[in-house]
Design goal:
The complex is a heterodimer of chains A (about 450) and B (about 50). By secondary structure, chain A is an alpha/beta fold. Helix content of chain A is about 35%, strand content about 15%. By secondary structure, chain B is mostly helical. Helix content of chain B is about 55%, strand content about 0%. Classes of the chains: A alpha/beta (about 450), B mainly alpha (about 50).
C-alpha cells in the first residue's frame, strides 16, 4: 500500500492506526526475509499508534502521514533506540535525542517501526553488512539491493512500509532505489537537515526519502524539507513547455544495452507527451567524479582515521579510509576549488534545458558476491559502476530523482534519473509524477 | 598468505587506487586559477542544535 491508500483506509475507519501497525509488524515477522531491519521498535510503535488513534477520535489529524508506518536508515539518531551506523564502532550507541528529520516525521504523524540495515558506515553500495548480515534484494534475493540505504529500499520494495528515510553521499538513496525498483530522491544540498545523522562526508551527505511511488516521496518531503508544504503534486498528463536534456556524453557511455533502451523509451514517452528533447553538452563528468571522490575519501578519513583501531572496520571500508588518509591537504582544498569551477560550468546547462534525463545506474542489480560486472565488452567493479552516474550530483548539490522505468530480461528493475536545478524538487517530483503512469 | 603479505597487498592496493585517482585529479588541480576558491558549502543545518 502507498501512503494515499493507507490514508483512505485510516480516514474511512476501515482500520485503526494500532491495527495497521500490528499488521505491519506481523508482515515484517512473516515476510521480511531480506534482513531489512537491524532494530524493530514494536512496543514504541504500538504506543505511538494508540496515541494517533486517540487524536483521530477527537478530530486531531496531523495530515497524510498520520498513522503511516515508516523506518529510518540506522544512521539517524533515535532517542533511546540504538543507532549502529551498521558498524561495530556504534553497536552500543544509544542517542539521547532524535535526528531533526525523525522529529519532523513524528510531528507529521508517521510511526517509526524500526531502524533499517545498511552498508557499514554508509560507505559502500552493496549493503552486504559483515556485522548485521547482508540485505537481500526483494526482487531477487540472489542479488544485492544496492546501498548504502539497502535496508530502507528493501523494506519499501517488499511492500512492508510505503516510505523510509535514507542518506546519499555518492548515490546511496538512488542506487538502491534503482536496483530495487522504487523511487528515491536526493534533494538539494541543505534542503533537508542533517542534524542528528551520523556523517560520512560532511559536504556531500544528503538526507532524503525512498518511497513506493513519487507521491510517497513528495509527502515525506512536505514533512522533512527546510521549507515544508511545497510538495503538492497535480494530476498533470503532459509535459508541454518542458525542455528535457539528453546528455550528449558520459551518461550513456558504458551502459548496459537494455538499461539504455529503457531510459530512451522513457525519454521518448516524455517527448510524445509534449516535452522538447534537447541534446546537451555537459562538463567532463569523469573529472567531476574524480574531484568528488577526493572530497569523499578525505572527509570520511577525517572521521575515522583518529579511531586507529582497524579491527572495528571491515577490510573494504578500511581500504577506503586508508585511501583518504594518503591524500594531502592541498589535494582536498583543490578538489573543493574545482567544485566551484564545475558548479559554474554546470550552471550553464540550465539555460537550455529544465531537467536532465539519464540512466540512474548503468546496470541492474548485481549478484551477491559479484565484485565485477560485464557491461558490453567491458568489465567494471561494482562500486564504480554503481556510483558512476550518481556521484557528480552530490558534488554539485543538485536534486536528483531515481524512478523505475522498466525491467531487463533478467526481471530486474531499471532506474531512470532525473536531475534539476537547485531547490527545484517540487517540479522534479511533479515531472516524475506525470511520467509515472506513462511508463506502466 | 601471511599477515605480513596480507598487509603488504593491502597497502599496495591502497597506493595503486590513490595513484589512479591522482592521475586524473592532478592535471585538473594544475589548471586552477587564483580566483577559483572553495564555495561556502557549509550550512547551519549541519551543526547540532540544542533541543
Amino acid at each position: 500500500m502507498n501512503i494515499h491508500e493507507i490514508e483512505v483506509l485510516l480516514r474511512g475507519r476501515k482500520i485503526s492506526c494500532v491495527e495497521l501497525i500490528q499488521q505491519t509488524l506481523a508482515d515484517i515477522e512473516a515476510r521480511d526475509k531480506f534482513n531489512s531491519l537491524i532494530t524493530i521498535t514494536a512496543e514504541q510503535a504500538l504506543a505511538e499508534a494508540a496515541e494517533r488513534d486517540r487524536e483521530l477520535a477527537v478530530g486531531i489529524d496531523r495530515g497524510p502521514l498520520h498513522g503511516v508506518p515508516t523506518a529510518h536508515k540506522d544512521l539517524f539518531y533515535t532517542r533511546g533506540v540504538r543507532t549502529t551506523g551498521g558498524s561495530l564502532l556504534y553497536r552500543d550507541f544509544v542517542p539521547d535525542c532524535d535526528a531533526a528529520v525523525v522529529r519532523l516525521l513524528r510531528n507529521a504523524g508517521a510511526i517509526t517501526i524500526g531502524k533499517t540495515n545498511l552498508h557499514e558506515l554508509a560507505y559502500g553500495v552493496t549493503s552486504d553488512n559483515p556485522h548485521f548480515g547482508p540485505v537481500l534484494n526483494p526482487r531477487d534475493p540472489s542479488r544485492v539491493p544496492g546501498g548504502s540505504s539497502g535496508g530502507s529500499a528493501s523494506l519499501v520494495a517488499a511492500g512492508l512500509v510505503p516510505m523510509c528515510l535514507g542518506t546519499d553521499t555518492g548515490g546511496s538513496i538512488r542506487i538502491p532505489a534503482s536496483y530495487c525498483g522504487i523511487v528515491g530522491l536526493k534533494p538539494t544540498y541543505g534542503r533537508v537537515s542533517r542534524e542528528g545523522v551520523l556523517p560520512l562526508a560532511f559536504t556531500l551527505d544528503h538526507v532524503g526519502p525512498l518511497g513506493s511511488c513519487i507521491n510517497d516521496c513528495a509527502l515525506a518531503m512536505n514533512a522533512i524539507a527546510e521549507v515544508t508544504d511545497e510538495f503538492h503534486l497535480q494530476p498533470r498528463h503532459d509535459f508541454r513547455g518542458l525542455r528535457v536534456g539528453l546528455p550528449a556524453s558520459f551518461y550513456f557511455d558504458r551502459v548496459d544495452a537494455e538499461v539504455a533502451a529503457a531510459v530512451h523509451a522513457a525519454i521518448d514517452a516524455m517527448g510524445r507527451a509534449g516535452a522538447t528533447i534537447v541534446s546537451v553538452a555537459l562538463p567532463d563528468m569523469a573529472k567531476v567524479n574524480a574531484a568528488a571522490l577526493v572530497v569523499q575519501l578525505v572527509e570520511a578519513a577525517s572521521l575515522y582515521v583518529p579511531c586507529a583501531d582497524t579491527s572495528q572496520f571491515s577490510r573494504n571500508v578500511w581500504n577506503l579510509i586508508a585511501q583518504g588518509e594518503r591524500l594531502a591537504g592541498h589535494e582536498y582544498v583543490n578538489a573543493q576549488r574545482l567544485r566551484t569551477v564545475f558548479a559554474r560550468e554546470f550552471a550553464a546547462v540550465w539555460s537550455t534545458v529544465d531537467v536532465l534525463a539519464t540512466p540512474a545506474t548503468p546496470i541492474t542489480a548485481p549478484l551477491r558476491g559479484e565484485a565485477n560486472v560485464h557491461i558490453g565488452e567491458e568489465i567494471e567493479d561494482v562500486r564504480s559502476a554503481s556510483t558512476r552516474l550518481m556521484r557528480a550530483m552530490n558534488f554539485l548539490g543538485l536534486p536528483a530523482l531515481s524512478m523505475p522505468c522498466g525491467h531487463a530480461s533478467n526481471g530486474m528493475p531499471i532506474g531512470l534519473q532525473l536531475i534539476a536545478p537547485a531547490f527545484q524538487e517540487p517540479r522534479l517530483l511533479q515531472w516524475g509524477r506525470t511520467l509515472e503512469p506513462l511508463l506502466g | 598468505m601471511t599477515e605480513e603479505q596480507a598487509t603488504e597487498q593491502f597497502e599496495k592496493q591502497v597506493r595503486e587506487r590513490v595513484e589512479a585517482l591522482r592521475a586524473i585529479f592532478a592535471p585538473l588541480a594544475r589548471e586552477l586559477k587564483p580566483g577559483d576558491e572553495p564555495a561556502p558549502v557549509f550550512r547551519p543545518d549541519i551543526y547540532p542544535q540544542s533541543s
